[in-house]
């Protein structure tokens, strides 16, 4: 499954690194691409291995706002 998440407080390369790191720790994540300009996180994941809610929760636990 492919999903695009809007992250309103995504501003720096440090944010990109932090978000990629936490997303990659979710089992079933296949790919992740982040755009600072668009404030978007594109994720490809296996919905049988993880839930989107778990991915969103892991990002929000870092202090980011997922819309």
In brief:
The protein is an alpha+beta fold and 67 residues long. Helices cover 31% and strands 27% of the residues.
Describe this structure in words.
This protein has 67 residues and is of the alpha+beta class. It has a single domain, classed as Alpha-Beta Plaits (2-Layer Sandwich), CATH 3.30.70. The protein is built from two helices and three strands. It has helices at 13-24, 52-60, and strands at residues 2-6, 29-35, 40-45. A three-stranded antiparallel β-sheet has the order 1-3-2, covered by helices on one side. It starts with a strand and ends in a 7-residue tail after the last helix. It comes from Clostridium gallinarum. InterPro entries: HMA_dom, HMA_dom_sf. Residues 1-67 form the HMA domain. This is Heavy-metal-associated domain-containing protein.
Most strands sheet: 3 strands, antiparallel
Oligomer state of the chains in this structure: single chain
H/E topology pattern: EHEEH
Number of domains: 1
Largest sheet, order of strands side by side? 1-3-2
Could you tell me the radius of gyration in angstroms?
Answer: 11 Å
Specify the CATH class.
Alpha Beta
What's the total number of strands? Answer: 3
What name does CATH use for the topology? Alpha-Beta Plaits
Helix content: 25-40%
Strand content: 25-35%
Inertia-based shape: globular
**Mean pLDDT level:** 97
Poorly predicted runs: none
Give the CA-CA distance, first to last residue: 18 Å
Total helices: the number is: 2
Structural class: alpha+beta
**What would CATH call the architecture?**
2-Layer Sandwich
